[in-house]
Amino acid sequence: MWFSRLFACLLILSAAASAAEIKIRVLDPQSAAVVGAKVELFQADLDQPASVGFTSAEGMVVFTVEGSGKCSIRVFAAGFAAEISNLPQSQPELLTIRLRLASADETVVVTATRTPVPADATAADVETLNAGQLQAMNPIASEDALRFLPGAVVNSAGQRGGRSGLFVEGGDSRYNKVIVDGVVVDEPGGTFDFGTLPLTESDRLEFVRGAQSTLYGSDAMTSVMQIWTRTGNTHTPELRFGADGGNLGTANGYASLSGANGRFDYNVFGNQFNTMGQGPNDAYSNSLEGANLGLALNDKVSLRLRTRHDNSVTGVQGEWNFGGQTFGLLPDLDQRARQNNILSSMEVMVANNSRWTQQFTGYESNEKRTNADSIADPGRSISGFSVDSPFNTIGNFNRAGVEYQGNYVERSWAQTTFGYRFEDENGFFGDLDSPPIDHGLRLNHEIYGQQMLTLGRLTIVAGARFVHNGGFGNTGVPRIALALQALRGGRFFSGTRLRFAYATGIKEPRFDESFAGPPFSIPNPNLLPERNRNFEAGIQQNFLGPKFTVKATYFNNLFKNQIEFATVDPVTFVGQYVNLNKSFAQGAEAEIQAQISPRVSVNTSYTYTSTQILDAPLCTPANFCDPTLAAGEPLLLRPKHSATTLLTYAGTRWGGSIAGSFVGRRVDSDFFGFGINHVAGYVRVDMGGWYAVNSRVTAYVNIQNALDKSYEEVTGYPSLGVNFRAGMRFRIGGE
User: Fold this and answer.
1) Rounded CA gap, 130 and 137, in Å?
2) Those residues with Cβ within 8 angstroms of residue 10's Cβ, 6 or more apart along the chain or in another chain
3) Are residues 463 and 397 in the same domain?
4) Each residue of 281-321: pLDDT tens digit?
5) CATH code (residue 188)
């Protein structure tokens, strides 16, 4: 008996003596520390990691390695390729791993799970645009880039700077959560203008489809879009600047100063864009200033401050040209839409140990919108009835809050994400020429949790969010997703994945729906949130490793409690918003991703969407409702057929992209009684290219609507014809 106990003690001591502590440091290509990267330690030839951790403020993670067997390290960080490195048999005390920028087949994302995960392991539909792709596309606003991503249908009211909405999986344009540098920027209730959001200095864009309210709360009914600004990473300060110009009186200039010195990194930038457009009152101007500052306070705590301010002015022609027919209408000559937006966030990242990271964020976004028309233009009347009248409307919306997020790896195969968010939503809106101005206020508390389990070939993601909203009270939104690697395959058939997701989404009412008062509306503070029941199922097949991927997804959405305006007094037309309508959307997406070579990638997709209004009890002829809004009709501006293609080449001396978007016929209405009930389909092709004259000077050109197609995305608002820009960008300093 005593001998067996002694032998067991000797084994334990022997194992302890053979255990070694190894430190791993993760750096980017410019040798700057990567914070919050997910690092997995594998021993021998096991499929499951022996340990998992996150890098600290200095890019460090520490593991204890048992024995002297073969070990390997796998690193995931958003925007970089997944890196696999073998540990030397000598097991050094410090191993440095330098990451590479990701190509199309190496994408690591964070939006789908709020932690770094390979895109094909998220059990979600995720699309990305990296810095190289954004540079080749050189978009003026986010809508120029989004329209070429699978599953995204962009409808813009007019030309440059026109009100632009995003429609995903048959959902409304208010069903998207938009986050810039960690700050929610859409108006409470989901309204957002993608036509005026500049992408200058954007490092990457992630676009997740499906209901995501479990992780992101209200408005994430059918998608979440997230954008990050580039961080400074060169020891020598780097000054980037450039300018371009083109037809239609277009001029664009930009500059940035960035770098990293010890524990501090910085990027300060600005941009000014102007164009006259191609018709009367079609000018657009947008200025942007911003900064991204980071500081590692010690080896465990890092701090990051981000801020952006953009100010735009858009000429609004109004609805006037219907596929070449004007019906006697002329463009509005004096209407102007202005936006003055600012956002800021302070983020503190704490890595207590390799298994546990905590993130504390304080943020604020302030959106100021005005839309003014000073006179009634004589050229805007139908049968002697003017459709143009003076107004001076405003919408000032402020979102300020704090959020805590914790990530804990309790086992190598189990990871928990949890958090709390408090948000103050405040808004003033109305017509300055018809006081009083309406005001709304909501104080919201939310807690959420998500468990991610990797059990062999099966990944399970389950989560829930509890919301206490100052408007509609308490509710909960669950989500569960499964991903199964059904077949690992060989060299040609290189893996088959199946995925399934069930989720619910919510969208709080807009401020004007809950709080708008006389003379035209009665406030309804008791409105319920609009809801979505979302179901998705898909398959992914890889060929030749990850170089070629084919995906197919079926989606099914049931939207209910949709808000509609109900007239109370038929004489004065005073009414209030109520929860009445219900609609349905289902469809299928097919996508092919191909990394033809290390420098050439292709992403092409096709989406079929079928929608129907199920209940619209107030839409009757007696209520003078447009028949396109009645029960049984398809939803407006949702095409049955759409497709995208994005071809990118990124060489050492030159690169470029060709992007194509096909959007089929879709239901719409002129709402003037002209009998127009649809918008014709169209094809748009954009092209861009750059050439490095030397390591410091690059010439580039971008052409939008290269085929010069005449089309409309919204009835009565003709889109811009062929337009191009050519310019030079310069770099001084850096490494």
Assistant:
1) 11
2) none
3) yes
4) 999 999 999 999 999 999 899 999 999 999 999 999 999 99
5) 2.170.130.10
